[in-house]
Write a structure and sequence with these properties.
By secondary structure, the protein is an alpha+beta fold. Helices cover 27% and strands 33% of the residues. The longest helix has 16 residues, at 4-19.
Length: 129
């Protein structure tokens, strides 16, 4: 498990990519539904990511199941979908720093941004969400 410093260093990189506009969002039906349900834009979703801390850390880094060379980090925010009961009231966020071949650059990829499908445990909070 990464240390709080490791998590904060990752999030610092994420914030840097966001500030440079080097961002991408996987437009899955779950992700698009979450944006619509919350009434927010793609840019608003990244604004929420800017405020993540080690206290929002869920798990990772782990190899992505589709692209094993790419490491994914998972985070959560509590009670975002207030009409749902736990754990589905929480927002699940999966991020990866992606090295693209064409064009040759690095960016932050938001792979998941949707209602949690299972309870998330935040190890640096010591409680269940």
């Amino acid at each position: 498990m990464p240390t709080i410093i490791d998590i904060e260093l990752f999030l610092e990189q994420v914030r840097k990519f966001i500030s440079l506009g080097k961002i991408d969002f996987l437009p899955s039906s779950k992700n698009k539904y979450a944006l619509s349900n919350l009434g927010i834009s793609f840019d608003d979703a990244f604004a929420l990511v800017i405020d993540l801390t080690a206290m929002n850390y869920y798990r990772g880094p782990n190899p992505d199941h589709k692209f094993p060379k790419q490491q994914v980090w998972e985070f959560g925010l509590e009670n975002i979908f207030q009409e749902n009961e736990k754990p589905m009231s929480d927002l699940y966020i999966k991020l990866a720093i992606r090295k693209r071949k064409e064009p040759k650059e690095t960016d932050i990829l938001m792979m998941s941004f949707h209602s949690a499908e299972r309870a998330m445990r935040f190890p640096y909070r010591g409680n269940r969400v």
